[in-house]
C-alpha cells in the first residue's frame, strides 16, 4: 500500500551498518502525519499533497540544514499537506537496501520516496549531484525526467546550486530559484488542485501549470541550440509549450518576521555537524564581494526585527534544550541592531549556560564589546575571520574592503582581551592572482602571531590559516573568469606552506589547512556547466561515484576519465568549462534564470575587478543599479527599529510576558 511504513523490513538491516541511528527517525519535534491527512473528495479524489524533502548528503550534515528544516515545518503546518525527510544513505546501507530489495525511504514515516507526489532536493553544493542519482535509483524513480510517468514523483531542485540547474536538467522535472517558503506553498496548491481534478493531462499538464507561474523552471520546456565552437546559441521556450516564459524569476520573501521558522527546530538523535539551535537574523548581503554567489543571489538585504529574533530564540530554546544559539546570516555582525541584540540576548540568558555564536564575522564589523557579549554565558571559542585575499591588491580585485591595518587592529584587540586562537580564511586561485599575492598570506599570519604575542605578553598564541580553492560561480561578476588549474593551484599552495614553515620564529604557531585543487575543478565543471555535463555526472555515478563532497569518497581520476569519455563527440572539454575565460557576448547556461542582477552591471563589476576598483555597500550608500530591487519589486529592509528585548529567561517566568508582547 502507498504510504506504508517499511520499518519492520528495515530494522534487521540496521545492525549490519555503521551509525544505524541516522536511519531511525523520531527526533524531537519531528512530524509523522497520517497519509491521508487531507482526506478524499466526494468522488474519492485524493486531497493530500505529499513532499519528500532531501538534503543530498549524510544525515549528520543534512539534519541541521536550515532550508530543509524550514520547508518541512511550513509544509506540515498545512492541513492538506505532509512533508517527510530523507538523506543520502551511506554505501553500506545502499548495498543492504539493494540486496533486500528495499527503496530509498524517509526517516520520519519510513515510507518509500516513490510514494510521494513531490521529491524536493536542496543543493547547497553541486558535489551532491551523484547522491541525488543514488536516491532516485534506490527509490525506483527513472533517472531521466523524460522516462517518468504520472505515478512518479515530480523531482524539484532548490538551494543555491539551483541557480544553474542545467547540468542536472535531464534528471529533474523542475527547479525553484530563490527563497522556498512561499514557493513550496504555491507548488502545493497547483499539485493539490491537479490531483483533486483527477490529474487531467497527466504529468505534462501539471508541469505546464507550474512553468506558467513564471517562478518554476521546467527544463523540458526549453530548447538549447549550440554554435559550432560549442558555445550556446540560445535557450528558448519549446514551440509545443505555450505560455512558458522566456525567463524564470527567483522568489524573494520580504517580511522575514512573517516567516518565523523553524518554530520547533529538530534535535538530531545522532551527532551532527552543528549542535546548536540557529536563527537566521537577516537574509541577503550587499557587501558586493565579487566571488560570493550567496551574497549576489540573495539580494536585497532583509533584516529580521530584534523582537522577532528574540521571540524565535525564546521559543526555539524552550522547544529544543540546546545550549548554544547560532545567529545566522552571510555576515551576521552587519545586522543594524547587532550590538543591542547581542547584549539583550546575553542579559536575557544570564546564568543559563546559553552561549551565542556568530558563525560568520567580518573583520571590519567585529569589536570586543560584541565578542564579550557573545561569550558572556557560554565558552570562549576561537575567532574566525575571512580576509579572503592575502594582499591589499587582490582584496581590491575581489571587493573585500578590509585592509591589513584593519585585520591587525582586530586581532590585537582579540588577543589583548584574552583570546588565544584566531582562524583566518583565504582563497587561492582568485582572478589576476599571482604567487606573490598568495605568499602575502604567510606574512600576514606572522604579523598576527607577533601582534598577539606583544599585546598578550604570552607565547601560546595560535593562528590557523585555512585555504579554499576559488571556484567561479554563476550570477557573480566572476562568472566570466578563468579558473586556476589543478597543478597551478597545488604549486601555489606548496610555496605558501614552505613560506610559513621556513620562519622558525612563527612556523610552529601557525596551523595550515588547505584543499588541493582537484575537488575545486570538478565543482567548477558542475557550477558553470550546461546540459552536456549531465552525461559526465551520470557516468561518474554509474562508475560508483558517491559522496563527492567527502575527501575519502571523492575520485578525481574517475571524474577526469568520465569527462573525457562524455565529451569525446562534442567540441568542448573539461578545460573549456573551467579554465577558459568567457567573453561579454557569450550566452551563459543560466542567462534565462533571472536572479534580478542585471548582466550588464555584472560585466561592469567584472571590469572594475580587473581595474582593482572597489565598490561600496549599497545599504549605506546610493544605489549602484545592480537591478535587483526594480527587477524583483523588492527593496532593502533594515533597522534600527528602536525596540529592545524583554528581559526574559528560559528558566524564569517570562513565558506569559512573551505571549502578551506578541499580541
From TrEMBL:
Residues 271-509 form the Radical SAM core domain. It holds the Pfam family Radical_SAM. GO terms for molecular function: catalytic activity; iron-sulfur cluster binding. InterPro entries: CHP03960_rSAM, Elp3/MiaA/NifB-like_rSAM, Radical_SAM_N2, rSAM, rSAM_horseshoe, rSAM_sf. PROSITE patterns: RADICAL_SAM. NCBIfam families: rSAM_fuse_unch. This is B12-binding domain-containing radical SAM protein. The lineage of its organism: Bacteria, Bacillati, Actinomycetota, Actinomycetes, Micrococcales.
Amino acid at each position: 500500500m502507498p504510504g506504508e511504513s517499511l520499518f519492520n523490513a528495515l530494522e534487521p538491516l540496521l545492525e549490519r551498518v555503521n551509525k544505524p541511528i541516522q536511519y531511525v527517525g523520531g527526533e524531537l519535534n519531528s512530524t509523522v502525519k497520517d497519509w491521508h491527512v487531507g482526506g478524499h473528495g466526494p468522488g474519492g479524489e485524493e486531497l493530500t499533497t505529499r513532499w519528500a524533502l532531501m538534503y543530498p548528503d549524510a544525515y549528520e550534515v543534512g539534519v541541521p540544514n536550515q532550508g530543509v528544516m524550514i520547508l518541512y515545518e511550513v509544509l506540515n503546518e498545512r492541513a492538506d499537506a505532509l512533508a517527510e525527510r530523507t538523506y543520502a544513505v551511506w554505501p553500506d546501507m545502499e548495498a543492504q537496501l539493494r540486496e533486500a530489495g528495499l527503496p530509498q525511504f524517509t526517516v520520519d514515516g519510513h515510507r518509500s520516496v516513490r510514494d510521494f507526489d513531490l521529491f524536493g532536493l536542496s543543493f547547497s553544493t553541486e558535489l551532491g549531484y551523484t547522491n541525488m542519482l543514488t536516491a532516485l535509483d534506490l527509490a525506483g524513480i527513472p533517472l531521466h525526467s523524460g522516462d517518468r510517468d504520472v505515478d512518479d514523483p515530480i523531482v524539484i531542485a532548490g538551494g543555491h546550486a539551483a541557480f544553474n540547474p542545467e547540468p542536472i536538467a535531464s534528471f529533474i522535472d523542475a527547479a525553484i530559484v530563490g527563497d522556498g517558503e512561499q514557493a513550496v506553498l504555491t507548488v502545493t496548491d497547483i499539485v493539490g488542485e491537479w490531483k483533486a481534478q483527477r490529474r487531467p493531462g497527466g504529468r505534462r499538464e501539471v508541469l505546464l501549470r507550474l512553468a506558467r507561474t513564471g517562478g518554476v523552471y521546467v527544463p523540458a520546456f526549453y530548447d538549447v541550440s549550440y554554435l559550432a565552437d560549442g558555445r550556446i546559441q540560445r535557450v528558448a521556450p519549446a514551440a509545443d509549450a505555450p505560455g512558458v516564459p522566456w525567463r524564470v524569476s527567483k522568489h524573494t520573501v520580504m517580511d522575514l518576521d512573517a516567516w518565523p521558522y523553524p518554530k520547533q527546530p529538530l534535535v538530531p538523535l545522532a551527532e551532527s555537524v552543528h549542535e546548536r539551535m540557529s536563527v537566521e537574523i537577516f537574509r541577503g548581503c550587499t557587501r558586493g564581494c565579487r566571488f560570493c554567489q550567496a551574497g549576489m543571489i540573495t539580494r536585497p538585504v532583509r533584516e529580521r526585527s530584534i523582537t522577532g529574533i528574540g521571540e524565535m530564540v525564546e521559543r526555539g530554546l524552550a522547544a529544543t534544550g540546546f545550549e548554544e544559539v547560532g545567529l545566522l546570516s552571510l555576515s551576521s555582525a552587519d545586522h543594524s541592531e547587532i550590538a543591542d541584540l547581542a547584549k539583550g540576548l546575553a542579559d536575557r540568558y544570564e546564568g543559563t549556560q546559553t552561549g551565542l555564536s556568530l558563525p560568520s564575522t567580518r573583520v571590519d564589523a567585529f569589536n570586543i564589546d560584541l565578542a564579550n557579549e557573545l561569550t558572556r554565558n557560554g565558552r570562549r571559542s576561537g575567532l574566525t575571520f575571512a580576509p579572503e585575499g592575502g594582499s591589499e591588491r587582490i582584496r581590491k580585485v575581489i571587493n573585500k574592503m578590509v585592509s591589513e591595518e584593519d585585520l591587525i587592529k582586530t586581532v590585537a584587540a582579540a588577543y589583548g582581551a584574552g583570546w588565544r586562537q584566531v582562524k583566518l580564511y583565504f582563497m587561492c586561485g582568485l582572478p589576476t592572482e599571482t604567487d606573490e599575492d598568495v605568499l602575502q598570506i604567510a606574512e600576514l599570519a606572522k604579523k598576527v602571531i607577533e601582534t598577539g604575542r606583544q599585546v598578550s605578553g604570552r607565547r601560546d598564541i595560535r593562528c590557523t590559516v585555512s585555504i579554499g580553492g576559488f571556484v567561479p560561480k554563476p550570477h557573480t561578476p566572476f562568472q566570466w573568469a578563468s579558473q586556476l588549474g589543478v597543478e597551478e593551484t597545488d604549486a601555489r599552495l606548496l610555496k605558501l606552506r614552505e613560506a610559513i614553515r621556513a620562519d622558525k620564529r612563527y612556523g610552529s604557531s601557525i596551523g595550515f589547512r588547505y584543499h588541493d585543487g582537484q575537488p575545486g575543478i570538478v565543482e567548477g565543471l558542475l557550477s558553470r556547466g550546461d546540459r552536456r555535463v549531465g552525461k559526465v555526472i551520470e557516468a561518474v555515478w554509474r562508475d560508483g561515484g558517491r559522496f563527492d563532497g567527502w575527501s575519502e569518497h571523492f575520485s578525481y581520476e574517475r571524474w577526469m576519465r568520465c569527462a573525457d569519455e562524455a565529451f569525446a563527440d562534442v567540441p568542448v572539454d573539461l578545460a573549456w568549462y573551467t579554465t577558459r575565460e568567457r567573453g561579454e557576448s557569450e550566452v551563459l547556461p543560466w542567462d534565462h534564470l533571472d536572479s534580478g542582477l542585471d548582466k550588464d552591471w555584472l560585466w561592469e563589476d567584472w571590469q572594475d575587478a580587473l581595474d582593482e576598483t572597489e565598490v561600496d555597500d549599497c545599504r549605506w550608500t546610493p544605489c549602484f543599479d545592480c537591478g535587483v530591487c526594480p527587477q524583483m519589486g523588492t527593496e532593502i529592509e533594515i533597522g534600527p527599529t528602536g525596540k529592545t528585548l524583554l528581559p526574559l529567561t528560559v528558566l524564569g517566568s517570562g513565558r506569559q510576558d512573551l505571549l502578551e508582547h506578541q499580541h
